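Dear colleague,

As promised, here are the two records you asked about, laid out in our usual form so they can be pasted straight into your sheet.

NAME FIELD: protein one
SEQUENCE, THEN STRUCTURE:
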Amino acid sequence: MQSLISVDIVKSAAENASLVIAEVNPQMPRTQGNSFISVHDIDVLVPVDIPIIENPVAEPKEEYGKIGQYIAALIEDGSTIEFGIGAIPQAVVPFLKDRKDLGIHTEMFSDSIIDLIESGAVTGNRKTMDRGKITASFCMGSKKLYDYIDNNPSFAFHPTEHVNDPFVIGAQHKQVAINVALEIDLTGQVCADSLGSNFYSGIGGQVDFNRGAARSTGGKAIIALPSTAKDGTISRIRPTLSNGAGVVTTRGDVHYVVTEYGVAYLHGKSVQERAIALISIAHPKFRAELTRAAVDAKILRPEYAEVEGKIVVGPPEFSSSHVLKDGTLLNFRPMHPTDEPRLTELFHALSKETIYYRFMSQVKFVQRRVIQNFVFINHRTDVAIVATVPEAHGEDIIAIGRYYLDEKTNLAEIAFVVRDAWQNKGIGTALFKHLTLIARRNGIAGFTAEVLKTNRSMLRVINKSDLDIVSVPTSDVYSFRIKFE
């Protein structure tokens, strides 16, 4: 019989049992915290001397590293982290070594925690409870890990009723819960314990930590999963859960969902918005199929059949930031499939003059079809970058820069629109430079643009650049040809 370094339910069981039989093993590490039992509460002591069960850390798969990178981007300095069971939560660790004052409050941990501690990223100084301590209820790893925690005052092992208490978790500062799923449906229901009707594990602490992190000030509840299973033949994001699969975390409790293709935020979203967000982070070869299934199930409106296969998240390397002269920080990121409501709000807020300059025609309002043409793009020949500012409800889109590639000429037509209240602040110029950088990386030779002579703001943006510019005037419009080389 092999032993496990576990306080979780063992201490409570020993305190309540009528007969307590305990093995005494010199190879078992002595853990600090609420993990001690009085010798007077033990009825029978059994001396043993056997190795502790080890769980070697496997080399992470490539997609796990990508998932880990996306998750790490959500974790701020001073956060308290829970690492769920499995390779994916551990794949986050290499991307956290530059963080400051991280804390750990987790059900379990493995060897990867050592490197994170040794990097100096973990201090626990901003934890609300168990400050300065690494809190857990059990661990699994190698002998190196067991030697590391042996009598180490940095660790505090506690029973499950403390570690997994959602109110204790929610009291922590910026608690981040990282848990895994086996599959998730398009409404956000998470199955984490069975493959169909065949049970794979128990529900564990996923619900406890997910709800606790949601209660935490500045906390984040994250569910992660690879986009596919069985060597890429099955999508883990499904129209409905597999027959017999149970729901571990309900759709109302799900906040962030992460795959190797990006991050979807579901909390507070409509069923349609949830489906679009999840399809956008599914494996590309399944997105069209998922879109058709969502339309057939009336999760998506019928017109979404027209964007089948176009629900794509832009690459993270397209993201950047820019500080205006007045100190305002703008975030530049690719257009997201879930941006339709924010984009609708932007266009409704534009003046008639701004709309005329952008579309070169008098329109009373921008139709939904036009807005969808902005949102559902391929991020290769059709690139759209939005400038956003943070708001209490998330973020507002205040500007869009876009280019459309003519593959015959390898030149891309550019266009911009900036919310009226944010014009003449240099946002157009910053977007122009950002799009130029993206286009260069994509091997595009240059830009073209059609600009009304009365659109002085756009003319300034183009003429201020140090690129090779040729302009051809007509009666109302300047036609620009802008070469990068």
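NAME FIELD: protein two
SEQUENCE, THEN STRUCTURE:
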Amino acid sequence: METVSKLTVSELTELIRCRLEEDFPLVVVEGELSNCRPASSGHLYFSLKDAGAKIDAVMFKNRLRTLNFEPRDGMLLRVRGSLSVYAPRGTYSILCEEMEIAGSGELLAMLEERKQKLAAEGLFDENRKKPLPRFPSTVGVISSPTGAAVHDILNVLERRAASVKVVILPAPVQGTEAAAIIARRIEQANQWKLADVLIVGRGGGSLEDLLPFSEEAVVRSVAASEIPVVSAVGHEIDWALCDFAADLRAPTPSAAAELVSGEMATVYDTIRNITDDFTNAINNRIDKARLLMRPFNIDDLEFRFRAILQPRILRLDDKKEALVNSFLVLVNGLRTRMELAIATLEASSPISVMERGFSMVLNSKTGRVIKQAKDVKPGDHLEIRPLHGKITAITEESYGEKQ
């Protein structure tokens, strides 16, 4: 190697910076706006390109306020500014002071023309769109299996609907071959009925990166799909023609996963809420029961039980004794009355009188009981009945009470 002056990377970069900035203090460049990225700081980072090259550019917040239009990918712009070298990365870019529209970008014009053509065929009609299934059992994802979009979709579905099966149909999401493969994956999903709903998309990117999703083959496959299709291409500000043909457009792949799992997630949330409420109610009842049972323990449970039961046993015994005594008084009274009645009956019985020596006298002819002496006259036949046996007699003479 020939001996030359040795330069460090920083020294070489500084030489390049000085040469570029001194030789190109002011440039006017025309090109197509691409990869437009508004920063949170308010600055706008983008690229300008043509058929053969691309250059990075930036327009700071204070200069953006002077614009009377909103820069979008695909616009043909004319910018005025100076070249600047960013040493840490070894790159150069244009620091834009002014920006104006030079004409409609060729890419946007082509997409607009294609959009009008497909719309005229009815591919974007609302009456063609199908509702999403409320409870899909299988979700098909057509995207790059290594892309961030697939991981975002899987994370959302795992969180919101873990029971849903996910079928990934791998396809490149940019490049010349991407559109044909994406269209073929949609057709295969329908042919073999691989899913209840399809998510077709990718993460964000420039307008050129998203072109496969605006190709006619993809748009026609989306429109012809019997399986409902959710288009999830790029971020919220991005768009593709398949958005118009899809049954539903999601601003991001994560949002698409939320949309297809929406009903199921709601049902899961409802079940979880009901379960939590039921569990809390049972736990509250258990806690209340424990508080009520806290005064009772094994040692004094019998004592407390007896303390509750003993007064009631005493009351029962008192009532029983009172009832027995009442029955005894009633029985004794009835017994006394019965004995008096028996005595009265016995005293009134003719047999009792006759046992004391009395007899009953009857007229033998009439059978009437003789109660007075005047009831008989001499010659009447009489029948005398003592306690045992019978005596007959003839009246010789009768005497009245006064005689």
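A couple of things worth noting about protein two: Residues 354-394 form one domain. The chain has a mean pLDDT of 86.

Best,
R.
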